[in-house]
Design a protein that fits this description.
31% of the residues lie in helices and 22% in strands. It has 213 residues and is of the alpha+beta class.
Length: 213
């Protein structure tokens, strides 16, 4: 399987989970999706990550995002593990964990990196939009836990820049100034799109207050 690239359509699949069989496209519906992989069940870093995802359920819902995890262990083991996650992380896992024992999804999404491990999936994140296009990917080694604040930040940026002709600069957080697209040069269009005005640091670098705030 070739590596999935930005803009590629996320592969569809049907796979078992702790919540029963998941038909991915049907389950996703018109929502954004965060699909994230785990090396194995009952691993310490994954336990903290899944607990954090559950704790952030309101933040994902507010953005119209459905999280879904994947591990190569079977569903009955997932159910046992969820008990540990809920207990140790003081939360309630309310999203599915795919039971990819046959590695069907791992193969579709290129989650086995032999130079890292021939059996465990790497910590990959796929941010998928409602049209099923892959909009962002982040891959971590097994030893490094993910930063879910960053995942939310990327989703905020994608959703903002889809609806306005802007980009988000370095270390941008929701509510910060944004960059006007260099393609917009007409003064009338600039005034119409950015009524709060803008600061031109260079002709190609123009900052404006976030349009949807």
């Amino acid at each position: 399987m070739a590596t999935l690239r930005l803009g590629d359509i996320a592969p569809d699949f049907t796979q078992d989970s702790n919540e029963g069989p998941i038909d991915f496209y049907r389950w996703a519906g018109d929502a954004w999706v965060v699909l994230f992989s785990h090396p194995a069940d009952f691993t310490p870093v994954c336990t903290t990550e899944l607990g954090k995802t559950a704790a952030l359920s309101g933040e994902f819902a507010r953005r119209g995002v459905k999280p879904i995890a994947i591990s190569v262990d079977p569903a009955d083991k997932h159910k046992e593990w969820i008990g540990d996650i809920n207990d140790t992380q003081s939360t309630t896992v309310d999203f599915p964990i795919l039971a990819d024992a046959d590695r069907k999804v791992a193969d579709l999404y290129d989650l086995i990196h032999p130079n890292a491990s021939t059996t465990a999936t790497v910590r990959s994140v796929f941010i998928i939009d409602p049209k099923k296009a892959i909009r962002a990917t982040i891959t971590y080694p097994a030893s490094t836990g993910r930063n879910f604040d960053e995942i939310l930040r990327v989703i905020d940026s994608l959703q903002l820049t889809d609806s306005h002709k802007v980009a988000t600069p370095v270390n941008w957080q929701d509510g910060d100034d944004v960059v006007i697209s260099p393609s917009i040069q007409d003064p009338a269009e600039l005034a119409q799109r950015f009524p709060k005005g803008f600061k031109a640091i260079r002709p190609y670098l123009r900052l404006t207050p976030q349009p949807n705030k």
